[in-house]
């Protein structure tokens, strides 16, 4: 391979001092084919070959990169490594530091933020184009809307006429056809029209931002002028309110989503705009709320928008050398492709269980019916449980690009986003693919390939986003190895790992995929905990171990005594939680037109009347405008009880159940089983202990966000026995719980529910 003798320049690499040293000492050469591994491991190999110390700053040390070079000058190699890690090389004594400065990180983040803003601009245009926006309704539109509502109501009446004659019938109809035609929904679309894409792009995963025309400490100033939106909403609402009495309700039927009689609105004193994004989605929910002088929401509507990226079609080519995968790589590619199989109801499910303490492993492939276990090689399991040593990209992804670079006669340095693991797998399992096709299809995998010289440099197109969504190999390895060795993970381990979970990925993050392959139950448990209760799981994890030990079954911490990190988690659990907030009001047309009227006259345990669900007092940013008070409490309740690990013959895996859970399951089974006594759910039972943990952020009348977690483990030296061999006291608790669920089968003419709804 011919190389120019001069030193190339690149990006932000600091190399003037580097060139001086190279000329003085003679340029060292490096030869290695090192499948993807941590940058620090590559640096150690370079030192081994050249004797020159290459130190990796933590900002780049754990980035997985791939290197395949032959007699490569050290200065060029380090330059390319800096390029794919987004860093720079700085001379230090006789060695060098690979690092990434705050300036470089900011430049990269700003550049990609610009791309995201452009993507939201395209997404907004498409969303508004698909739905249309009308500011002010005329009488013809009102008449047309009323006619449609009347027609819908007539159809509902025809469908429920016969059902109403049945004694005790409770009928719920879900009429969604009118829900997108309300004044508040139009106002939300108008707000989206005025929102700058930069505001949409600023909403991070799991964030809920509240903007207000009268912002308090916990709110943000309104980013748009809503004066005309408010005026149009009041006009449209009142126009519809005049016509709405024609839409008489149906006696005895709860209609969800339809239009009912509404009252005219006198004035709007405040407007809220709420932007939110879930942890696993790029979609931003846009919600607008109008508040009257009584502090009630008299209208609320929503819409959503997703960033739209320019379409990239993977090019195909019959030319080039066919990529040859090793047996291990092909095995992993098949598993990763099946992981994304659709639809989910028919997808293959992989369940990996270790045998004899990890001496072997098996994978069960089931697609509706159970099938015999198929061999799952211990070598591949070793890759999954050691991502810090053998990066998963060191399999088929590395093999593809190493072969492509060799076929092109180039040296290779590459860094990959985690998403390519599953995306490339789907291409490879279809059949033979040439190295030309791999390179041509790289843009579809989120990769940029620079091969204009005798080097091939492969980097993520969205490098900063790739790093933010890359799972922590070191932390994951600790959890994976513990799970593989024992067959379970403790709640403490999951809480500790929750600080390192990957956010902002619409598909399943790679670490949860691997964890589910190692142990499906633990993978599902972590997914469940992080999808709805991440803040409170992390809050639990932030409590020092000595505090948990000393606290016993009940731990109570004052908010003012929490660490800075714990306070931040508590704040997010209350103000910014997108999912699972207990006092979120039901969305819809302001309780004026929605049949789901969430009013409450109940009195709380403290003796104070509960505010209406459509009141600003149900909004966390309004209830506590100055932040969470110091007297708020974090309550952690821990209850340890006897349980069993219940298994069924011929079915791999089992369930950890308390006596009460086991009894309720059996009771429900027998209550719904016709034809005598229902068969037992399980065959064997191994004594276990179950720890239930409830974490509650107690703010009194302002709400109590809470989450429930579960931990369980087998009793040491216990053995699986039949139900009759369990302790009598345990079986008595099972039978008592079962009796509570032993109700006669529901008659056919009993409670009737049609469609969705509440």
Key words describing this protein structure:
758 residues; alpha+beta; five-stranded mixed beta sheet
Largest sheet: 5 strands, mixed
Question: Overall mean pLDDT score?
Answer: 78
Cα end-to-end separation: 71 Å
Q: Tell me the total number of β-strands.
A: 23
Structural class: alpha+beta
Number of H- or I-type helical stretches: 25
Spans of at least 5 consecutive residues whose pLDDT stays below 50 are 1-24, 254-261, 341-374, 579-608, 743-758
Short note summarizing the structure:
The chain has 758 residues and is α+β, with helices and mostly antiparallel strands.
Can you walk me through this structure?
The structure is a single chain. The chain has 758 residues and is of the alpha+beta class. Helix 7 (183-194) packs antiparallel against helix 9 and helix 16 (473-486) packs parallel to helix 18 (510-518).
């Amino acid at each position: 391979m011919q190389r120019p003798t001069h030193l190339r320049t690149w990006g932000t690499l600091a190399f003037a001092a580097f060139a001086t040293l190279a000329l003085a000492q003679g340029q060292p050469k490096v030869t290695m084919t090192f499948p993807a591994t941590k940058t620090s491991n590559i640096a150690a190999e370079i030192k081994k070959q050249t004797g020159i110390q290459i130190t990796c700053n933590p900002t780049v040390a754990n980035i997985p990169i791939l290197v395949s070079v032959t007699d490569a000058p050290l200065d060029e190699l380090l330059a390319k490594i800096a390029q794919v890690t987004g860093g720079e090389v700085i001379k230090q004594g006789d060695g060098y530091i690979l690092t990434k400065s705050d300036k470089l990180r900011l430049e990269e983040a700003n550049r990609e933020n610009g791309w995201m803003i452009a993507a939201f601009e395209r997404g907004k245009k498409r969303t508004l184009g698909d739905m249309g926006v009308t500011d002010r309704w005329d009488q013809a539109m009102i008449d047309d809307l009323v006619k449609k509502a009347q027609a819908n109501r007539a159809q509902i009446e025809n469908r429920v006429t016969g059902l109403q004659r049945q004694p005790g019938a409770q009928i719920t109809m879900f009429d969604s056809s009118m829900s997108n035609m309300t004044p508040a929904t139009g106002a939300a679309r108008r707000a989206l029209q005025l929102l700058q894409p930069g505001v949409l792009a600023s909403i991070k995963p799991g964030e809920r931002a509240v903007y207000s025309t009268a912002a308090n400490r916990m709110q943000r100033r309104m980013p748009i002028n809503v004066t005309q939106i408010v005026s149009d909403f009041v006009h449209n609402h009142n126009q519809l309110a005049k016509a709405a009495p024609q839409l008489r309700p149906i006696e005895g039927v709860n209609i969800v989503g339809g239009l009912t009689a509404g009252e005219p609105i006198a004035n709007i004193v405040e407007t809220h705009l709420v932007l939110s994004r879930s942890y696993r989605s790029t979609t931003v929910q846009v919600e607008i709320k109008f508040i009257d002088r009584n502090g009630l929401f008299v209208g609320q509507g929503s819409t959503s928008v997703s960033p739209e990226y320019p379409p990239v079609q993977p090019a195909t080519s019959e030319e080039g050398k066919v990529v040859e995968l090793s047996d291990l790589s092909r095995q992993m590619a098949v598993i990763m492709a099946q992981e994304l199989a659709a639809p989910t109801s028919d997808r293959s499910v992989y369940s990996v269980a270790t045998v004899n303490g990890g001496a072997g492993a098996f994978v069960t492939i089931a697609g509706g019916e159970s099938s015999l276990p198929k061999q799952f090689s211990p070598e591949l399991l070793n890759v999954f449980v050691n991502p810090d040593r053998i990066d998963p990209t060191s399999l088929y992804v590395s093999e593809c690009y190493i072969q492509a670079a060799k076929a092109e006669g180039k040296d290779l340095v590459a860094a990959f986003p985690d998403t390519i693991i599953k995306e490339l797998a789907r291409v490879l399992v279809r059949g033979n693919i040439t190295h030309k096709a791999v390179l041509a299809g790289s843009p579809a995998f989120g990769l940029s390939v620079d091969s204009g010289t005798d080097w091939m440099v492969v980097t993520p197109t969205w490098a900063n986003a790739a790093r933010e969504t890359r799972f922590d190999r070191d932390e994951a390895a600790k959890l994976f190895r513990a799970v593989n060795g024992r067959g379970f993970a403790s709640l403490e381990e999951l809480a500790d790992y929750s600080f390192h979970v990957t956010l902002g990925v619409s598909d399943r993050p790679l670490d949860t995929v691997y964890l589910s392959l190692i142990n499906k139950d633990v993978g599902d448990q972590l997914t469940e905990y992080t999808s709805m209760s991440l803040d409170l799981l992390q809050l639990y994890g932030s409590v020092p171990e000595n505090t948990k030990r000393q606290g016993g079954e009940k731990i109570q911490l004052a908010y003012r005594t929490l660490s800075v990190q714990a306070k931040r988690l508590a704040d997010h659990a209350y103000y910014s939680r997108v999912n699972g907030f207990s006092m979120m009001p039901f969305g819809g047309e302001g309780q004026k037109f929605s049949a789901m009227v969430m009013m409450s006259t109940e009195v709380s345990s403290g003796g104070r009347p509960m505010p209406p669900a459509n009141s600003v007092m149900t909004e966390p940013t309004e209830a506590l405008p100055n932040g969470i008070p110091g007297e708020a409490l974090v309550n952690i309740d821990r209850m340890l009880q006897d349980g069993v690990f219940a298994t069924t013959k011929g079915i791999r895996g089992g369930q950890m159940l308390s006596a009460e859970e086991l009894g309720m399951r059996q009771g429900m089974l027998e209550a719904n089983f016709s034809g005598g006594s229902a068969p037992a759910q399980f065959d064997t039972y191994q004594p276990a202990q179950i720890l239930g943990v409830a974490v509650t952020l107690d703010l009194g009348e302002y709400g109590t966000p809470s989450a429930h977690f579960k931990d369980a483990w087998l009793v040491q030296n216990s053995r699986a026995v039949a139900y009759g061999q369990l302790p009598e006291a345990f079986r008595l608790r099972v039978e008592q719980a079962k009796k509570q669920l032993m109700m006669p089968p529901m008659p056919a003419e009993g409670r009737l529910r049609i469609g969705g709804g509440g």
